[in-house]
From TrEMBL:
Pathway in which the depicted protein is active: Glycolipid biosynthesis; glycosylphosphatidylinositol-anchor biosynthesis
InterPro entries, per the entry: PIG-X/PBN1 (IPR013233), PIGX (IPR040039)
Transmembrane segments: 199-222
Gene Ontology biological-process entries: GPI anchor biosynthetic process
Function, in words: Required for proper folding and/or the stability of a subset of proteins in the endoplasmic reticulum. Component of glycosylphosphatidylinositol-mannosyltransferase 1 which transfers the first of the 4 mannoses in the GPI-anchor precursors during GPI-anchor biosynthesis. Probably acts by stabilizing the mannosyltransferase GPI14.
Transcription regulation keyword on record: no
Membrane topology: Single-pass membrane protein
Keywords associated with the record: Endoplasmic reticulum, Glycoprotein, GPI-anchor biosynthesis, Membrane, Transmembrane, Transmembrane helix
GO cellular component terms listed in the entry, alphabetical order: endoplasmic reticulum membrane
A Pfam family matched in the record: PIG-X
Listed name of the protein: Protein PBN1
UniProt-annotated location(s): Endoplasmic reticulum membrane
This protein's record includes keyword Transmembrane: yes
Native source species: Panaeolus cyanescens
Length: 243
């Protein structure tokens, strides 16, 4: 029986990767396509530019806010959904008859959380623990090739529309269960939080830094302009050669 497990690597910081390993027995669901569905909490999202760079590993459909820099409190309380289509070819007579192992790595990002008051690096409130449900791998198979005792999967309507209305188009969705010894089907990650008490220090320092950078850019621009003007003046004052 096919099964899977998922890990976060690393399990802290703002840029983890979700690594899912799917084990598929020999001759399992030969006429099916293989997919992976993510339903991520509001603090977690995937960068569509990074996903596009992995076109050799999978294709994707994305639902959610793609503004990379906004903190979570500046966005509506909505989740991010991601549907991957994985390359999955049936066994042939020349294929090794061994269980197939498919590993899927999806880069994730965490948004900045809401800052808190009176926290320190030693305080547990300096971090927010986020639980990320495991993705759901599943086969999309012709109804005629699916055993009657096989369980089926229900997904939101907009996901089914991308899958060509699988439940009404002669196909069924067959979920792949987690490994029997996997435990809870979710991972946790610690999100560092800012402190509101630091605003009195951070805001003026940031303003001064931006102002100094602006003066530096202005100084460089004036020096460059002066140098170019000097070259043009010299070129104009040079006498023309008479041949």
């Amino acid at each position: 029986m096919a099964h899977f497990n998922t890990q976060l690597n690393p399990n802290k910081g703002f840029h983890p990767s979700s690594v899912t390993t799917i084990n598929i027995p020999e001759k399992h669901h030969q006429q099916c396509s293989l997919h992976l569905y993510f339903n991520l909490p509001a603090l977690v999202f995937a960068d569509t530019n990074e996903l596009s760079q992995r076109s050799n590993d999978y294709t994707y459909e994305y639902w959610g806010n793609i503004d990379l820099e906004k903190p979570v409190h500046a966005l509506p309380d909505s989740r991010t959904e991601l549907l991957l289509t994985l390359p999955f070819t049936p066994y042939t007579s020349s294929t090794t008859k061994e269980p197939r192992v498919i590993e899927v790595s999806v880069p994730l990002h965490l948004r900045y959380g809401s800052p808190r008051k009176q926290i320190s690096s030693e305080n547990s409130q300096a971090y927010e623990r986020i639980n990320i449900d495991w993705p759901t791998p599943f086969f999309r198979c012709p109804d005629s090739t699916t055993p009657s005792e096989t369980g089926t999967l229900t997904l939101p309507k907009h996901i089914l529309e991308v899958l060509d209305n699988s439940t009404t188009n002669g196909h069924v969705l067959i979920p792949i269960p987690p490994h029997p010894e996997a435990g809870p089907a979710q991972n946790s990650i610690s999100l560092p939080l800012g402190s509101k008490n630091d605003l009195a220090f951070v805001e003026p320092i940031t303003a001064v830094t931006i102002l100094l950078c602006a003066f530096w850019i202005l100084r460089v621009a004036l020096k460059t302009s002066s140098r170019l003007a000097s070259r043009n003046t010299k070129a104009t004052n040079q006498p023309e050669k008479i041949e």
